[in-house]
Amino acid sequence: MRQIVSSLFISLDGVVESPDQWQHDFDEEMGASLATTLETTDTVLLGRVTWTEWAGYWPSYDEGDEDSEFARWINGSPKYVASTTLDSVAEWPNSFLLEADLASAVKELKAAPGKGITVAGSPGLVVSLLDRGLLDELQLLIHPVIAGGGRRKLFADNSPLQNLELVDSSSTSSGTIIATYRPK
Known about the structure:
Order of helices and strands: EHEHHEEHEHEEE
Shape: globular
Radius of gyration: 16 Å
Structural class: alpha/beta
Strand content: 25-35%
Largest sheet: 8 strands, mixed
């Protein structure tokens, strides 16, 4: 059975939205952690918002820039989009709209052959998968910054209690903590 993992940048106050606006540094250790994700996964799950934003950017990414490796990986990987409002995802090659209900579609993906499955961005999808018992691992790259109000947090204030087990943690040279959790 394939595993579903998510890696998210998060502030001390729980903000996951627009990390480009508050992420203070991107260091070598964070890069190595994310490179491991690319090496161990070959399928991407995306929510509608992240897919829409990325579909307008990554397919036309300039190969000469620093994110070329990620661009090649994301453009070449099958991307499954969880959306009830999109009619088509054909504009970004290798994208597929999940047509069954989320739980059924994800269970089929987990049962299919291949490496792991990663959730790229898509904090709403991450929470939905966690709530349904379908997320196997949640890696949080916790930045030593308070992003402030007006931005989306990973978990709403009225989220139900969920117990997670810390399975790995490390700190990076920039002070970011990389914490990996599994649902109990």
